[in-house]
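hiii so um. not sure if this is the right channel but i have a protein structure encoded as tokens and i wanna go backwards to a sequence. like what aa goes where. can anyone help
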């Protein structure tokens, strides 16, 4: 299938075709004795993911585990649908997100407030998952991939309070979710992901430091794809966070409202990103991946809670 890319080590990147776009959200299948899907994508992506798994020989009773880095709808919106497709799979999530997968009503209500009419088009509806099938992770945990291979889970908040990074014992791949920002392979751009309500700069920087200490061989971004230059990429992740926070602080100090703060930050960071100087489709894709309004709103929310 044209949306499946082998990455070596029995790992396959799946373009979930979020909202019909390519290159927005990746899921990853780790094949082996106990096949594991990392990230489901959105609810509307679930049939795309199912077809990709089928093309790789994974049938309804073959998938052992579904694990999500966090419960935002672009990563976990398809959990309920995927759980229905694969009745033998255990669903693994951090303990702070588990109840929202069992009963998504509050999560969907808050998403509706943020996204309004765009919600159905971008994400669809997260279906509930039987609580008995959900395994809640603490600050660390282990997922059995078979033959002694494991995914080690490491709590990594800052982007979201229910976020984990996942380290593959065989390949050294680290599934970073959104904790290291979003990466655009076409241009090599890296930009932070700092949405409300959970963003916290100090906590986010701590998670990036944890990722560095884990010494992964490769970073697998949910947005989007593999990156092999690990140390400098994580350094850039931290630098991007600091730049966006400093600029938002400046806008706040000048008394700008949110719209004007977004405009200022967008203007002053524009030169950092080749994507915004590329064709219109690439620029649009980058804004979908890491929108300036969401980023600035999240930083503002953090500044309001923790005056500096």
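sure thing!! here u go:
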């Amino acid at each position: 299938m044209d949306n499946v890319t082998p990455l070596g080590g029995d790992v396959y990147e799946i373009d979930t075709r979020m909202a019909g776009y390519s290159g927005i959200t990746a899921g990853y299948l780790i094949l082996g004795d106990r096949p594991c899907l990392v990230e489901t994508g959105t609810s509307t992506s679930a049939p795309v993911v199912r077809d990709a798994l089928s093309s790789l020989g994974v049938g309804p009773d073959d998938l052992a585990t579904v694990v999500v880095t966090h419960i935002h709808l672009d990563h976990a919106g398809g959990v309920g649908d995927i759980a229905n497709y694969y009745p033998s799979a255990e669903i693994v999530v951090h303990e702070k997100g588990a109840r929202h997968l069992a009963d998504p009503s509050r999560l969907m209500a808050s998403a509706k407030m943020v996204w309004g009419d765009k919600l159905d088009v971008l994400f669809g509806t997260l279906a509930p998952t039987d609580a008995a099938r959900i395994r809640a992770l603490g600050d660390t945990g282990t997922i059995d991939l078979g033959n002694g291979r494991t995914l080690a889970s490491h709590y990594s908040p800052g982007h979201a309070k229910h976020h984990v990074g996942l380290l593959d014992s065989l390949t050294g791949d680290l599934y970073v979710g959104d904790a290291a920002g979003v990466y655009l392979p076409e241009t090599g751009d890296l930009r932070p992901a700092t949405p409300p309500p959970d963003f916290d700069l100090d906590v986010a920087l701590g998670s990036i430091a944890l990722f560095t200490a884990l010494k992964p061989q490769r970073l697998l971004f949910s947005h989007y794809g593999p990156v092999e230059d690990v140390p400098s990429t994580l350094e850039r992740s931290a630098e991007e966070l600091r730049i966006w926070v400093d600029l938002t602080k400046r806008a706040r100090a000048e008394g700008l409202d949110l719209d004007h703060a977004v405009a200022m930050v967008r203007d002053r960071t524009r030169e950092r990103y080749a994507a915004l100087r590329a064709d219109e489709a690439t620029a649009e894709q980058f804004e979908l991946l890491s929108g300036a309004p969401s980023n600035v709103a999240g930083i503002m929310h953090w500044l309001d809670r923790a005056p500096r």
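oh and The chain has a mean pLDDT of 94.
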